[in-house]
Request: fold
Amino acid sequence: MIPRGTDALSPAPHHDIYSIEDLRQLIYAIKEATNYEKPVSVKIAAVHNAAAIASGMVRAGADIIVIDGLRGATGAAPKAVRDNVGIPIELALASVDTRLREEGIRNQASIVASGGLRSSGDVAKAIALGADAVNIGTAALIALGCHVCQQCHTGKCAWGICSSDPALTKRINPEIGAQRVINLVRGWSLELKDMLGGMGVNAIESLRGNRLHLRAVGLTDTEMETLGVRMAGT
Reply:
């Protein structure tokens, strides 16, 4: 219901959701509209009470919980928000996974982690902390040729990736870009297999939530308790 010709705020305020009950009604409406054939995903930012929010989301009927960490995105958000709101994806992910397990509802929804995943090692850590899958955004953009100039929201991407301007979109070759993204995913896949072999794990499903394979370096006792990992060397 944004008037034509006016700016849209990102992220949108979602005035129809002020409680878990409101979210439950929206999820129900979406499932009814799709004849219960499509999973419903709900995305939240990684904040201090993400675990409690995630618990409500699962009980509201969400099939997938997407947690977006502090270090993700293009940086097109307002600077005050980008620098001061949110927590690292690792802490939010671990706390959400732990909370859902304690409440016995972990098997009712999948957890997807995003925000700041820059390498195959980050993917392995996210899976071990409890994620079922991960989203990658900036890494894929860089594979396409993005230089992270943080001008996505202007529609004037100098590299033609985040723009609908014909003069700018000519600067990117879709075929070459697609092959580079394929190379990225294939390379990460092979590296993950190497890491799994080194840990003695024969399937990535066996790594999910298995924090015994992780060790902390330079973290405080509080951080290690939240993550559920032990100090390196112990």
